[in-house]
Each structure stands twice: as C-alpha cells, then as structure tokens.
Design a protein that fits this description.
The protein is of the alpha+beta class and 258 residues long. It has 2 domains: 81 residues, Photosynthetic Reaction Center, Chain H, domain 1 (Irregular), CATH 4.10.540.10; 144 residues, Photosynthetic Reaction Center, Chain H, domain 2 (Alpha-Beta Complex), CATH 3.90.50. The chain has 3 helices and 11 strands.
C-alpha cells in the first residue's frame, strides 16, 4: 500500500453508512432512555406484590437528573411511583382485569375521573402572575357583545335540575380565552368551577347546561382552597370530577349501549 492510499483499499461510502447506523442506533437508545424519566418504572400487579420486580424494559432507565425550574425550585426525575391508593378493585383475578370503583368514582380518581397529583401551586404566566383568574379580577377581559353573557344564568345538570347560577367566568391570561364557568350553588354557601368544555350555553332559553353531572351533584364538586385562584392540583381534580360524571353520574351510563 502506497503512502496515503488508504481509501484505495476500503469502500468509504460503506464505512460512512455503517458509522451512521451505529450513531443512529445510539441516538435511539439515548432518546428512549431519556423519555423513561416520566412514567417508569411501570406499575403492575407483579410490581405491587414484590419489590424485586422492576418493570423498565429495554433499555434500562437513566440515572437521576435534577432540573431547576423557573421559580427556583428543583425536580428530580425519574421519580418514585405515586403511592396513592385507588378506591377500586379488579373485577377478575388475572392481571389487567377492569377495575370496579368502591368509593365515589367522581372524586376518587378512577376511570374517566382519573387525575394526576400535580403540584399544589398556581400555573403562572411568563410574567409570574397566576394564569387562571376570575374575570372580576381582570379588567382587560370582557364578554363580546356578539356572544351571550352567561353570568346570571341558571346552571342545569343532565337531569334538567338546577345546581346553581353562573356567578363569573375564569379566563386564561396566557391564551386569552374562557377556561372555567364559576357557579354559585343553590345553597349559597360556596362556589365551584366547571370547565368550559362541559358547558353549553342555551342563548334562547338563557340557561347553561352541564350534561356530564346531575343538578344535585354540583354540591359535591371540588372546592378551591382560595376562591380567587386555582392550583395545578385543583385544576386536575375539577376536570376529573366532570369527566367522571360522564360515566358515573347515573348508574345506567355504566351499562352497554346495546
């Protein structure tokens, strides 16, 4: 071999191709490990019965890494699995069997009423202000004249019974839109929030309808610790309550359609 004639005896294109394959395989393994920082190790009946069973698959989970958040706090991932006990039991003895609620499924985080245990702090805007606020606290937001203003309208459940009256609207300061409808209960003791996606405004009859729950069930909806702000944990529980109602508000909703 003459000096500098290395490329005469090797297929450079093939060598580059093999190098790319090795690099790409390493990249896939790296990305797959990184995305296991959330949700792993998996939980199952096997892992709950024995601490020695650790469901992580291939490749293995990455080592812990800490991230500094915008507010100065830090989180470390992967995190330990949530130790929350579900108010549900399996219908059959085999792994993966459907769960049957044993408590109030609209509040206990089961099925469509499931929620994540997020931080009990408000979601913030880029400027550091609470992101979700009632319209009474934000002079920059009003209801367009072309749209019906639901404030003052009675709120009816899926059975047509009144649960309360719309007392205010909550807006998202980061993405200017209505996120929640605030309802003063018939009892007048406190207010609850309903996600706007569950509300239908009947302009002609001047009522707001929430078909996912019944009129009497508004009284059991999650209540905010601070009536002027909502935290991340409270948002998940509020949305889960009405989501759970789509299946559990009436017994017949749990039965097959046919």
């Amino acid at each position: 071999m003459g000096f500098g004639a290395f490329t005469s005896y090797f297929d450079v294109a093939q060598v580059v191709l093999y190098a790319f394959w090795i690099f790409f395989a390493g990249l896939l393994i790296y990305l797959r490990r990184e995305d296991k920082r959330e949700g792993y190790p998996l939980e199952s009946e096997r892992s709950q019965r024995s601490a020695r069973v650790k469901l992580q698959g291939f490749p293995r989970m990455p080592s812990s890494k800490s991230f500094t958040m915008a507010d100065g706090s830090t989180i470390t991932v992967p995190r330990a699995p949530d130790s929350q006990e579900l108010a549900a039991r399996p219908l059959e003895p085999w792994p993966g069997a459907p769960l049957e609620p044993t408590g109030n499924p609209m509040l206990d985080g089961v099925g469509p009423g499931s929620y994540a245990n997020r931080a009990n702090v408000p979601e913030l805007t880029f400027e550091g202000h609470p992101r979700m606020v009632p319209m009474r606290r934000s002079a920059d937001f009003t209801v367009s004249k072309e749209d019906p203003d639901p404030r003052g309208m009675p709120v009816l459940g899926g059975d047509g019974q009144q649960g309360g009256v719309v007392s205010d609207l909550w807006v998202d300061l980061a993405e200017p839109q209505i996120r929640y409808v605030e309802v003063m209960l018939n009892s007048g003791t406190h207010r609850v929030l309903v996600p706007i996606g569950f509300v239908r405004i009947d302009k002609r009859r001047r009522v707001a309808r929430v078909r996912s729950i019944l009129g009497a069930q508004f009284a059991a909806a999650p209540v905010l610790a601070n009536p002027e702000q909502i935290t991340r944990a409270e948002e998940d529980r509020v949305c889960a309550y009405y989501g759970g109602g789509t299946l559990y508000a009436r017994d017949e909703r749990k039965e097959p359609l046919l």
